[in-house]
Design a protein that fits this description.
426 residues, Aspartate Aminotransferase, domain 2, four-stranded mixed β-sheet, biotin biosynthesis, adenosylmethionine-8-amino-7-oxononanoate transaminase activity, Aminotrans_3, cytoplasm
């Protein structure tokens, strides 16, 4: 199909994420991808390929077309691509669940597999609500979180996004009204920690669980917060009989410099959600892990099952690739690579702080953020990045990068150049 034909059909029929129908600008057509490069069907602004500074929305840790992941997918395709998980099981899913238990905090022993991060949050919420109902506390029906977070686009996760200024503000009058506290400060403040403790105590009779993104609030604004606040949450939740959920969908698998954000605080949640990088960006899959106390509590209840069952739950193909991706990550000195990327981002993005319109530059692990004092001109910023040979996807007032861990120093420097160019243009 010619490029112009493909774009015409795309414009007529394909609804892209967070966009109108039809779209106002044509997307770039990617023909193939390898390593950290996206090859375009036709050159754009003189660029036949672009360095991916986004890891395909933070999922492609190992880059593209990786021989180890390709082999895992190919081998599993020859066995079976899918089989229902109700009443059946298979080695890839069992191996994946076991591997996840091995690498996550010790109290997490049970794994519910699903097909997207948003659904994993739905499952986490359902687990916590049903646990309290099962143990005789049906009044605990709400969730608590801090403002500025993002947990997905399905119904329950939307209710946990900031109802004032968040991307799902439109639904504030329809969604369940959860309990919100102020967003965490960027430095540790005892007054804020005291407020967290007080609010958990105040709402303990109605709140089933607190849910937060540990260390980094991602799609809600790319804000960082001290891990000490996670310890405050753990202590307060334990004291007042509230469960704690960590949404590690974006922060898991090394992105912040530790394997999971929870590791930076040395605490364990009662429930953890993982996704995005779980399969190395190859296939859609997520998981919700919980403690034995939660699993056994639900299983002793009046309805002794978790009534949730995605059609593609435990998909063998995704499970096999996820196992290969985790093994590949753990077989390497991933922490050293993330530290190398962090150093490169700090050096390469520091000059952006002097640009007009830039409010702040911040870096943590393999995450680099340039925040403007105004909303980004998406078209201008994207064009500037593409001219520099890099794919970025700014949003709101943020131009940021989360590169694959295999990004070399030269390519990392080009990503930083593109971020600065986008900041100037946007």
């Amino acid at each position: 199909m010619r490029n112009d034909e493909l774009l015409a059909l795309d414009r007529a029929h394909v609804w892209h994420p967070y966009g109108p129908m039809p779209g106002r600008t044509d997307p770039l057509v990617v023909e193939s991808a390898s390593g950290v490069r996206l090859r375009l069907a036709e050159p754009v602004h003189g660029q036949a390929e672009l360095i991916d500074g986004m890891s395909s929305w933070w999922s492609a840790l190992h880059g593209y077309n990786h021989p180890v992941l390709n082999e895992a997918a190919h081998d599993q395709l020859g066995r079976m691509s899918h089989v229902m998980f109700g009443g059946l099981t298979h080695e890839p899913a069992v191996r994946l669940a076991t591997r996840l238990v091995e690498i996550t905090p010790e109290p997490l022993q049970h794994v519910f597999l699903s097909d997207s991060g948003s659904v994993s949050v739905e499952v986490a919420a359902k687990m916590c609500l049903q646990y309290w109902r099962s143990v005789g506390r049906p009044g605990k029906q709400l969730l608590m979180t801090w403002r500025g977070g993002y947990h997905g686009d399905t119904w329950q996760p939307m209710s946990l996004c900031d109802p004032e200024g968040g991307m799902h503000e439109l639904w504030s009058g329809v969604l369940q009204r959860q309990v919100f506290v102020d967003a965490p400060p960027v430095t540790y403040e005892e007054s804020y920690a005291r407020m967290l403790r007080e609010q958990i105590a105040l709402h303990a009779d109605e709140v089933a669980a607190v849910i937060v993104e540990p260390v980094v609030q991602n799609a809600g604004g790319m804000r960082f917060h001290p891990p000490e606040y996670l310890r405050v949450l753990r202590e307060a939740c334990d004291e007042h009989g509230v469960l704690l959920i960590f949404d590690e969908i974006a922060t898991g698998f090394g992105r912040t410099g530790t394997l999971f954000g929870a590791d930076q605080a040395g605490v364990s949640p009662d429930v953890m959600c993982v996704g995005k990088a779980l399969t190395g960006g190859y296939l859609s899959m997520a998981a919700t892990l919980c403690t034995t106390e939660i699993a056994e509590g639900i299983s002793r209840g009046e309805v002794p099952v978790l009534a949730h069952g995605p059609t593609f739950m435990g998909n063998p193909l995704a499970s096999a690739v996820a196992c290969a991706s985790i093994d590949l990550l753990m077989s390497q000195d991933w922490a050293l690579e993330v530290k190398r990327i962090e150093t490169g981002l700090r050096e390469g993005l520091a000059p952006a702080a002097e640009l007009p319109g830039v409010r702040e530059v911040r870096v943590l692990g393999a995450i680099g953020v340039v925040q403007l004092d105004h909303d980004v001109d998406m078209a201008a910023a994207t064009e500037a990045a593409v001219r520099a040979g890099v794919w970025l996807r700014p949003f709101r007032d943020l131009i940021y990068t989360m590169p694959p861990y295999v990004t070399g120093d030269e390519d990392l420097a080009r990503i930083c150049t593109a971020v600065r160019a986008a900041a100037q243009a946007g």
